[in-house]
Amino acid sequence: GGLHKWTISRPFLTALLRACVQVLCEEKETTIKKLENVEIESTTSCMLSTRSTN
């Protein structure tokens, strides 16, 4: 009985898992992009400060 129910719900579980992975990947990408932007901004400001000092 239980095994039959599992077979029916398996595609749903797979889809749910894929959706979760997709969301996590998207979140990770945006976080990486944010970190890169911060890095670029800090590098630019650092370069600007050294230019003004020199």
UniProtKB/TrEMBL annotation:
Residues making up the signal peptide according to the UniProt record: 1-25
Entry keyword Signal: yes
Keywords, comma-separated and alphabetical: Signal
Protein name: Uncharacterized protein
Provenance organism: Thalassiosira oceanica (Marine diatom)
